[in-house]
Design a protein that fits this description.
This protein is of the alpha/beta class. The strands form five sheets. It has an eight-stranded parallel beta sheet, covered by helices on one side. It has a five-stranded antiparallel beta sheet with strand order 14-15-16-21-18. The chain has a four-stranded antiparallel beta sheet with strand order 19-20-17-22, with no helix packed on it. Helix 1 packs parallel to helix 2, helix 4 packs parallel to helix 5 and helix 9 runs parallel beside helix 13. The N and C termini lie far apart (48 Å). The relative contact order is 0.10.
Amino acid sequence: MREWWRDAVIYQVYPRSFQDDNSDGVGDLPGITQRLPHIADLGVDCIWLSPIFTSPQKDMGYDVSDYKDIDPVFGTLADFDALIVRAHELGLKVIVDQVLSHTSDQHPWFRESRVDRDNPKADWYVWADPLPDGSPPTNWHSHFGGPAWEYDAQRGQYYQHNFLAAQPDLNFHNPEVVEAVLDTCKFWLDRGLDGFRLDTVNYYFHDHELRSNPPAQLGPQVMATDLFGMQDNIFNKNRPENPGFLEKLRALTDQYDDVMMVGEVGDGGRRAIEIMAEYTAGTNRLHMAYSFPMLGPEFTADHFRSCIEGFQQGAPDGHPKWSFSNHDVERHVTRWSDHAVSEGAMARLACAMLMSFEGTVGIYQGEELGQTETELVYEELTDPPALRFWPGIKGRDGCRTPMVWEHDKPNAGFSNGRPWLPVKDPQLARSVDLQDAANDSTLHFYRSAIAFRKDSMALRSGKTDFINLPEPLLAFHRSADDQQITCAFNLSKEPLKLSVSGDAKLTGPRNAQLDGTQLSLPGNGFAYLENAGALALATS
């Protein structure tokens, strides 16, 4: 029997911004439960909740201080249990963000570890002596600026942090840490959770010899403040011990029915595909993985093809998850605006593409509304990198602003209090109620595209065979059993025509016209075809 997650559509909920039930301006679990019918009506299979565990919220929950409780800002364990019950009633699976590579500096484990060098948890985090001149033990960088080491005067040592100094890294070389982490995962599986989204899954282990990284061979990232990209990060992540821990985690999840793990691979380019392949190989590691190549600015047919073919070739027995937006990147309708006829046209094109990709796909809350990036001023920011590096870095707040439910209610129906991030007019104009009332809306398109994917065995489980066409055309066949769907996408603003062999006919959602053997794709146009043979760029 085919596992539910292999062709699933996963909907990411950012809890702070979905629905506020208690009017404190921050979204919460009862609010999510209230709005679950909206998610179910989309036709998706699963929701992914960004972090909801107890946290000082210095990095919006990615700094956990108690792995076995819900942060009061989001509710209680009883609220979590109620959400699980309601989601399951609606046919939705639920997975949550598990942030295992690091904790908050307020976690009891770290508070004990930093007391001295001899306590029971002294080796639970990555501690190291200063170099003779007092500088950090290695040259490793933090993603959030500065060295990946913070000096602690109480212990007289440095501790490692890949992100904020308030997020110390756990020492996975210590078996006690591994067992403690597995125990926290078991706690949630026992409560009926359907799986985990594993944050920074390639960051668990560090080089035990504390060797410094060499310079990057391909130059720095195009992000001046992220010095991380100026190194070849071979000693602070992607360590060979990582798969062994994933096998222990898989052994735990295999004790439960229908549980799934998807790992976030924090890397780009070819290396990301290689890690995805390694971490999903066989049946005893991750069920699937995703990385960042499709979450960037590149919008070419060759790019999307190379991502998919790269995974096919590099991980023939692995399983990918593809998405265009999440809580860490600029929303794709804005990110790819230079290629768009209009924001609505880009939203539909992106949806049609995503729903045709082989593997599991993910959408981020508001994506179904064609939501755009929110423009914020400095006084409105909450994201640590933005606060530190403004205006060089705008941060991630622009993609995290509240969901817009009802256009004529305060804060678009998100909250009766002052929201933690503002609701602005460009986002308000895309409210759920307005789009529900308009049959040609992006919301209705998402529902129809998801339904079409669900009804097509070729799109759900078919293999992908790319068709050689010049830029800006992306096209491929998806085939399963006796069904074949041919997918064609125009990634430019200019109209294009294709000649089509075979007894082709249009099917499913489309923005194209088929006249005999000629397929006309307007700017940002797309089509699904049955009985299509070869495709070629028309000469006239």
